[in-house]
Amino acid sequence: GESVGLHLPTLSVQEGDNSIINCAYSNSASDYFIWYKQESGKGPQFIIDIRSNMDKRQGQRVTVLLNKTVKHLSLQIAATQPGDSAVYFCAENRGDYKLSFGAGTTVTVRA
Amino acid sequence: SAVISQKPSRDICQRGTSLTIQCQVDSQVTMMFWYRQQPGQSLTLIATANQGSEATYESGFVIDKFPISRPNLTFSTLTVSNMSPEDSSIYLCSVGVQEGYTFGSGTRLTVV
Hints:
A: mainly beta, 4-stranded antiparallel sheet, 10 strands, disordered N terminus, B: mainly beta, 7-stranded mixed sheet
């Protein structure tokens, strides 16, 4: 599968392979993190979230990993499909439900 | 999760004019948020719309430019005033719910 150690703005992945998208956050006091998927012409769509008292959470074909030591968040997508092509954003809760978004990674799935 | 209806979905406006964007939620929510997404960029919080009180603006955003109304717990408007081409962006409203934060589909604004 495709993986990146640092945040990259784009990721090209072969259909069926696993994808890993990375994100660094800034505030060590942030206690809630969310991954969003944004398709062209649409608003961000919630994928999965994780609280700071956890280091891993799994959903349907997706897994989020949280490393608070290095303030790093990753999203793993298993068996990537063409419908997974989109821009993916991580977001951290700054407090009072205010979100701070990362730069985004554009994922392109190759057939 | 909450369902958000936002309109218009897109508009092309002349510079110097104003556009009001509406956001309707299918349930009562305490806090609503307005974000801006400039072309090819991430989302930036403009302000928090509080029912019954003045909106709270983030650094770099002012009420005169982006006046906000919040007349009840299901509705809010954002006005982009005296528009310039630099205001061309996608504007999104959002609500905070127990799991995740739901976003509207956005208003794609082009200022010419």
